[in-house]
User: Fold these one by one.
Assistant:
Number 1:
Amino acid sequence: MHEVKAVVAKSVGEPVSLETILVPDPGPGEALVQVQACGVCHTDLHYREGGINDEFPFLLGHEAAGVVEAVGEGVTAVAPGDFVVLNWRAVCGDCRACDRGEPQYCFNTHNATQKMTLADGTPLSPALGIGAFAEKTLVAAGQCTKVDPEARPAAVGLLGCGVMAGIGAAINTGNVSRGDVVAVIGCGGVGVAAIAGAALAGAGTIIAVDIDDKKLEGARKLGATHTVNSKETDAVAAIKAIAGAAAGHEGADGADVVIEAVGRPETWEQAFYARDLAGTVVLVGVPTPDMKVPQIPLIDVFGRGGSLKSSWYGDCLPNRDFPMLVDLYRQGRLDLDAFVTEEIGIEDVEAAFEKMHHGEVLRSVVVL
Ligand code: APR
Ligand code: ZN
Ligand code: ZN
């Protein structure tokens, strides 16, 4: 048993607290990881606010990189000393989705079976089966993806959730191709990651849309070629005009791929109407349960081809995508450092939630 410091949300809406928790030695199929860095994500805040489920207390944190300290019986894919990025999609390999070759939809993903607990023995629910605002955490070995050990932990840990969600929305779900016109609505951490992903995939025109000029400036740094402030300009008309000019056709009807990275009905509706006749809409922003699909005339759905998709965790396969993206980062072709607004201590998570709430940061990253 390991006694370590960790960030725990004890009850609905209460500020998080720094606690001493107990982490068991790894059992069969498990790995004990010394966490080096862990990003602060909206989902951590949603857990704290009771928006995910009511299985308090939660051990928060899930965008992490670290070093494997020990592995349990039967673990061969990782070994002590390996530098890993943690993931929440350790696929089972034999459910229906896995068997039909679409493990990104696996519905039996693995987590550690043993429980981490508070000092008094109360079991903790780790956020997304990870719980990495902690000096050490226990996960399923499949949740550890080995990557280049020279990479900066604070930067590559972000691939564990939000940044992968955005990049994957472009390269996996949206299948952005060379020369495409891509529009991204919402330029927070997820949206700018989608912009970076579109740039990696060779998009010709990348249109960033946001209501905040500061966010649009950041989007340019990650590869946006055009920006639209949708508070001042009609987003759909602006995207269509830029797409038309890019295609050299007055009549081009919109972007090849529109990525919605806000998670709201009105921005999804903009995405719906801003896509080309055969274009793809990707919803990667996370809506709240009360939100409804906008009232779009069915004839407007019928009158177009293309596809309407959603992207959960960027349709990523961690063992395929993380090492590739870390290599691109190491080669200077993907600026993961741009996502790290600040490095903070483990005692500063509550303050980071506050900053996130005010839209001041792409990511605050706890460094241990
Ligand atoms: N139109 C365009 N952009 C908008 C709009 C709007 N109507 N409303 C908000 N935005 C922008 C914000 O200005 C901000 O830049 O969307 C961005 C959202 O970014 P973040 O709050 O940093 O969220 P992010 O981490 O990128 O996640 C995107 O998925 O996980 C969820 O709750 C999260 O809804 C959020 C989304
Ligand atoms: Zn499966
Ligand atoms: Zn997350």
Number 2:
Amino acid sequence: MSNYHIKHLEEYYQVYRKSVRNPEAFWEEIAEEHFVWRKRWNNVLSWDFRKPEVKWFEGAQLNITENCIDRHLPTRGDKTAILFEPNDPKEEAEHITYRQLHQRVCKMANVLLEKGIKKGDRVCIYLPMIPELAVSVLACARIGAIHSVVFAGFSSNALATRINDSDCKLVITSDGSYRGAKTIDLKGIVDKALEGCPGVETVLVAKRIHSDIDMMPQRDHWLQPLLDDAYGDNVAEIMNAEDPLFILYTSGSTGRPKGMVHTTAGYMVYTAYTFKNVFQYREEDVYWCTADIGWITGHSYIVYGPLANGATTVMFEGIPSYPDFGRFWEVVQKHKVTQFYTAPTAIRALAKENLDYVEKYDLSSLKVLGSVGEPINEEAWHWYNNNVGKKNSPIVDTWWQTETGGIMISPIPYVTPTTPTYATLPFIGIQPALMDENGTEIKGNQVDGRLCIKFPWPSMARTIWGNHERYRDTYFSAYENMYFTGDGALRDAVGYYRITGRVDDVIIVSGHNLGTAPIEDSINEHPAVAESAIVGFPHDVKGNALYGYIILKETGESRDKNNLRKEINQQITEQIGPIAKLDKIQFVSGLPKTRSGKIMRRILRKIASGDTSNLGDTSTLLNPEIVQEIMDEAL
Ligand code: 6R9
């Protein structure tokens, strides 16, 4: 029990040391004390990063849903497991207790079994953020089917690629979805996708927007009547520790999306343990992560991590700007949210709006604020800290990846003193290393390099679905015996890590390595600037020069543009140095972003270098129309 909940910094260092000196003993103790197993493991860990092969808790048997649901029934049966907050604030929130969740998952599991889904089969879930999404995920886990959730903002092409890559036999979707004031025809997207997916035999359709849709006889079935008829209990399938739990696609810098495969026991242990500590979760808390379950953040920290701890986890169907920019804070007040976990892109969007939207609401329930998905710039950090946390709620800047399954570098709130833009210290059990270009580890502090992990952790992805070689090449071939993250990082004087951005975003100007994030931070601090992205473009003398795409705040739009350019460069010169000055500054009304909020720099790089003949795949962009505008006005 003692190691499960870290309470002060000295304890962090003690437990950390223990976890790296003897990882097997450490994780064995956590696994033994906090989970229910059908059969104990024979071996805690075996690994070889050269193959690569990693196995945790080999020989153990379990079902993750027994850990996330069944075991809570005697003590938390009437506690809210999932608190569903609909898109429309006028629609009532739904409290789903652990007992109700158990019944709903069992019924869904029985429907899947009845449709012929067996252990090991792949099921694609393409649903909006409604309770059926979490229920479907858990129902797959209940019967040992491998879920592949595809974010319901992806196009039919992207959906078809993912369905075919993992040979899904069944798709769970809905008649449509609400997104702010809009409705989206999800079933139409599925129908189009399935024209190219001969392997899909069955489509289950949840009713959400009550629209008139086409149902293909034999293939398509309304979900609710099947659930109504299904038996409300189900004996969980017994899974081996290393049986796949799910596939989740993530885009690579090149080529097709990679289906990252996560397995059962290690993923469960690590997501539960990180959830407990990174959010300092307590029994009475109401925890809210605003991500979509279509991303890893939703898998690990809306569904599995919170439920494994018997928590109340909020599922929000809506968007931050509907019906107005106060929506997040209204929900925090209404449900007395204690932990709030979101992305810097959302914070920056809200920070552009009037402060009244925040100040109107009582946010005093908040204890911990989280950030994930990209580096959080200093201005956004302070806005979040001052206006949402009222300087009373520590911000946990959590660095991790789809591939890592769980949070890897993060403060522990009320334990680790925070510093803006720093993800701070490695989580318990995580052994980071900074590497130079020649493959040598850079020791000591006040250094920067490429971020690698030296030792396995329980929730790491085990392979890429159907392509183990690509898994090895992408993550284990750059540095011997290390997992390479693709990110750059610096380690400061006290050993805190700051993620400087993807290594492919590093720009070498006159022989100096410049990370995009610190330069963008500096630009964003200019009072007229809302957001920026910089890329490199070829330069005769310097090798590369910097090109900045900058979105102005409303207040900046009337300013003289050349004066603004000078001021921005002056600011960069002061904060980073003249080497980081921008050669070109283009003011734009938006930046091309993926649906998870990441700027697609590949496109900006092409435009900056005047090479727009082949912009590559823009189908995953949230706002493809912006590309033309930026091209038309390029410098
Ligand atoms: C969880 C998630 C992973 C990439 C990662 C890094 C960036 C995520 C970050 C962060 C700086 C943080 N990233 N969290 N960069 N600070 N706190 O986002 O997974 O969608 O796979 O993205 O996101 O570049 O390598 P995923």
Number 3:
Amino acid sequence: MAFEGLSDRLQSTIKKITGKGKVSEQDVKEMTREVRLALLEADVNFKVVKELISRIKERATGQEVMESLTPGQQVIKVVKDELSILMGGEQSKIAVADKSPTVIMMVGLQGAGKTTTTGKLANLLRKKHNRSPLLVACDIYRPAAIKQLETLGDQLTMPVFSMGTEAKPVDIAKKAIEQAKAEHNDYVIIDTAGRLHVDNELMDELQDIKASVNPDEIFLVVDSMTGQDAVNVAESFNEQLDITGVVLTKLDGDTRGGAALSIKAVTDKPIKFAGMGEKLDELEAFHPERMASRILG
Ligand code: GDP
């Protein structure tokens, strides 16, 4: 289960303070010290931890908490609140274009789960929002990637637009949108190429696609298991492409949680969805508040 270590540590830390009828500044100090260590151990970005702890300290030692009838519980509420705010606060929605189709561009490194997530997102849009998406294969460098998307399309009985490996990604994307208009697909989800590392060539290509199709959303797919790396990847993709949201995959694994807790603070872009398994129905809207409750138990 994701966050197991972090969750265990935070829960045992807050247990000590929960039942207290009176909370001293010393209690808060000890609690925040342990919360700080737990977060660092979970691979949360150092600066993010520092700012979070100072906010928790300030609120937890405020008059309102100290003078309340259940200060212990109030302190826990502050921690939960701040964790939720850190992950983005309110859950953000997926865009709907004024003029159909809504175009979503999926970007990310190879192996992050981009193609799988493209299929999952299409499935979710149809099931939950009654939409009719067109999937687009723009990864022309790996024939296997096109095949993978076509297989997903078959499984979902959903159309997949591809022009093989010879056409340019920009042209594929443009043509796909024309087809979507003609066939009344209200969402176009473009699966782009990934590389093992962030490189200029890839970014140039993604910028070209962005400029030519003007997507309503650019979702960066990152593997939550890669911790700090996921945060660095998010930072560079965001600098180059001004992404609109993040999809965190593999949250069903034993990720320590650092990525989930740092990405919003570092990029100021919301985590919109979480991948919870390999199957096509294992994508969930990301709810910061629920996630904070899950972590704190
Ligand atoms: P891409 O190279 O970014 O397109 O990555 P793929 O979509 O091919 O996914 C890489 C691997 O990660 C595949 O084996 C997927 O089944 C797996 N995967 C993707 N998302 C998840 C997830 O949320 N949970 C788990 N456990 N596996 C995932």
